[in-house]
Amino acid sequence: MASVTLKPGRERPLQQYHPWVFSGAIGATRDQPGAGAVVEVLDAAGAWLARGFYSSTSQLRVRVATWQHDEALDSAWLRRRLAQAIQARAPLITHATSACRLAFSESDGLPGLIVDRYGSFLVVQLLTQAMAARAHEIIGALVELEEPDGIYERSDAEVRAKEGLPAHEGLLWGATPPAQLRLRPIQLPGTCVEPPPLLVDLCGGQKTGHYLDQAVNRARVAAYSRGARVLDCFCYSGGFSLYAALNRAASLTLIDSAPAALALARANLALIAAPPLIEYEVGNVFQVLRRYRAEHRRFDLIILDPPKFVHNQTQSERAARAYKDINLLALQLLAPGGSLATFSCSGLLSADLFQKIVFGAAVDARREVQIIERLGHAPDHPVRLTFPEGEYLKGFICRVA
Ligand code: SAH
């Protein structure tokens, strides 16, 4: 059996059930494992620690999938883990047409596999050599467990490149999803409005078609939108605006650099029976906010939900400046007593550092800012205690004096 033996003293994270083994921690490799093969992980003295999947190209050499010696990583294991992940979401799926993340990679003990359900269709990301090699097993298990109409692949090209895998998108099984689907996101009890049906573009849209991670936050942020002039920056398909409109915002201004995103947002907001004043702006948020500042425009609720700015550690300083820049601009555009909902989805930027960046922006803007709520991803994106890296989305709802 192929195995990797760790260097002396490098076993601690694995003993604490952290699932990653980097190449630098490996002292020796026996029976050279193939790309995506199952591999045993041993400590420096040769004692068995865990079992995982090998990557022949990534610095992240082994992703551990079991710490039980008698658990084989075979198709029964895959089906079992998927069934557990799906079962855990059952309380969140209240409508037949729900959109929900069913499997969240390491956080669900399925390293490299993401499965999103959009009504009767599934969208998968196969992000490691191991999962790409097991596509048929994954499809088989999903067909059996979920009985979908179709399974579509939208694997993230950037992550696959690190694994030496080509970018891949396309139909894996069954019927191609229609161009647009109308779905209800998951909702937590007690949040303000009934989840509205959202239009989702599974094949052409960003990511797996929709940003499921913000499902609950949209309802939370909308609680601050009644009668407000709302500015939705990086709006994509207008999810935040849609909830704000349902909560009787006075006006909506949506900014995104992608015309296709604004077209989706338009279609989403067309579902509102009595829409507020709506303005769509195709442009770069960094520039548009500067223009608004020069025009002395004011808003009562500003949402900042930018894409990931930090892709690797070397970019973190530049990214911090970018986060500070937009937060400063937003604080300058807020009317007294206004609210700022500010997010970062950069996993490499900690919540602590993000808070410090917003602090820096507040000092420069000479505004007094209170954090009213701290937000993370929706409960279909669980955070495994032994895998804090899985927690990437953080946000604050702030009140500005
Ligand atoms: N708020 C959205 C998700 C935002 S994803 C939701 O609730 O679903 C980030 C969005 O920012 C994408 O739609 C992308 O097209 C857009 N974007 C990226 N860089 C931008 C920039 N500099 N200015 C404006 N939009 C940008």
From TrEMBL:
CDD domains: AdoMet_MTases, PUA_RlmI, RlmI_M_like
GO molecular function annotations of the record: methyltransferase activity; RNA binding
UniProt protein name: 23S rRNA (Cytosine(1962)-C(5))-methyltransferase RlmI
Locations listed in the record: Cytoplasm
Family, similarity comment: Belongs to the methyltransferase superfamily. RlmI family.
PANTHER family according to UniProt: RIBOSOMAL RNA LARGE SUBUNIT METHYLTRANSFERASE (PTHR42873), S-ADENOSYLMETHIONINE-DEPENDENT METHYLTRANSFERASE DOMAIN-CONTAINING PROTEIN (PTHR42873:SF1)
Classification via InterPro entries: PUA, PUA-like_sf, PUA_sf, RlmI-like_PUA, SAM-dep_methyl-trfase, SAM-dependent_MTases_sf
GO BP annotations listed: methylation; rRNA processing
Main location: cytoplasm
Keyword tRNA-binding: no
Gene3D superfamilies, sorted: PUA domain, RNA methyltransferase domain (HRMD) like, Vaccinia Virus protein VP39
RNA-binding is among the record's keywords: yes
Keywords per UniProt: Cytoplasm, Methyltransferase, RNA-binding, rRNA processing, S-adenosyl-L-methionine, Transferase
Record-linked Pfam families: Methyltrans_SAM, PUA_3
Gene source species: Candidatus Viridilinea mediisalina
Gene Ontology annotations for the cellular component aspect, listed alphabetically: cytoplasm
All residue ranges annotated as the PUA domain in the record: 2-87
Matches recorded under SUPFAM superfamilies: PUA domain-like, S-adenosyl-L-methionine-dependent methyltransferases
